[in-house]
Amino acid sequence: MKRFSFYFVLTILLFFTACSGSKKPEASLIDQTDALTQLNQRIQADSTNVLLLNERALYYLEKQQIDKALFDLNRALDLDSRNAEIFLTLAEVYFAMGRLDNCNAALLKAAEIEPNNPKPFVKLAELNLMMDNLNVALAYTDKSLALSNYNPDAFYVRGMIFLNRNDTISALKNLMLALDQKENFYEPMMQIGIILSNQRNELAEQYLQKLILTFPETMQARYQLALYLQDNNRVEDALLHYDTLLQKAPSNKFVLFNIGYVYLVYLENYTKSIEYFDEALVKDPDYIDALYNKGRALEELGKYVTARDLYEQVLQRSTNYQLAIEGLNRLDRRK
């Protein structure tokens, strides 16, 4: 059976980012209310304190109350238009709004105000990386590192730039430098785990296991570890991790698909695989990878008419889906 590629891994990483252990656990509602109450009281007592206004803007940004964040930042800028921290926060707000040009302008202003501060240049590098301006992004990391060699964020962004250039050697070097400078830095550790997994390097398991131990709530690392174990034919171990993921996210179509794929390809339990593909399709009826693989399982069970119907459905949604074309060709040869 032809192996199905896991090209959707990048999508699942985006899905799991919000659940990754890199973020602080959310405080209780009472704690959050107390924090805002205290900020309000401090600002009421010192209404011209721009740092307090900036702090409250960050609070509002975290709660996605963009208008309130902008109001506080505009008040702060009226009081002090030469404060780099305010422009850095303003850049974060503009980024959340999808106004990337304004984000870039705010970061440039912060860099102009504090030309010896490495932070605006790291943020500019990150922004340009996201916009696929890799040469510009790299130049900003050079600038940031020239100002401070102890700069784990710059090394992390630099690693991601090289990764986007398909230079995994340089990417690993910079990601490891970031990790050397900041122990348990989630993002570079995760990226190292992904790169090593793709290389079938046994050190991948070490990095991913450490992530899971250090950040018990991370789903991204556990998913990547399950993929690594699956790709190295340790399917029973992989299924244990997938089962753990399903307990945390029972509606995740990617996990459901992968379990189905394990039963289809590795364990050749076609009936069981169909159950998981069906569950994935309940979550997303247009999930054509699940639709194709359900067809493949039915083909293996000798249910050729139903398999053909599913392959045709796949091609109706994606006319160049090569595996479905090959599936129809196989069925034609059976006539």
Q: Explain this structure to me?
A:
This protein has 335 residues and is an all-alpha fold. Among the domains are: 33-115, Serine Threonine Protein Phosphatase 5, Tetratricopeptide repeat (Alpha Horseshoe), CATH 1.25.40.10; 269-335, Alpha Horseshoe (Serine Threonine Protein Phosphatase 5, Tetratricopeptide repeat). Helices cover 76% and strands 0% of the residues. It contains 19 helices and no strands. Helix 2 runs antiparallel to helix 3 (50-62), helix 3 (50-62) runs parallel beside helix 5 (84-97) and helix 16 runs antiparallel to helix 17 (288-300). The protein is elongated and about 80 Å long. The two termini are 20 Å apart.
Name some characteristics of this structure.
Serine Threonine Protein Phosphatase 5, Tetratricopeptide repeat, mainly alpha, 335 residues, 19 helices
How would you concisely characterize the structure shown here?
With 335 residues, this protein is mostly helical. Helices cover 76% and strands 0% of the residues.
CATH homology superfamily name of the domain at 33-115: Tetratricopeptide repeat domain
> Which stretches are poorly predicted, pLDDT < 50 over at least 5 residues?
1-30
Spatial extent as radius of gyration:
24 Å
**Helical residue percent?**
over 70%
**Under CATH, the topology of the domain at 33-115 is which?**
Serine Threonine Protein Phosphatase 5, Tetratricopeptide repeat
Structural class: mainly alpha
CA-based shape: elongated
Strand content: under 5%
Order of helices and strands: HHHHHHHHHHHHHHHHHHH
Oligomer: single chain
| Largest sheet geometry | none
Overall pLDDT level = 90
Distance between the termini: 20 Å
CATH class of the domain at 33-115: Mainly Alpha
Strand tally:
0
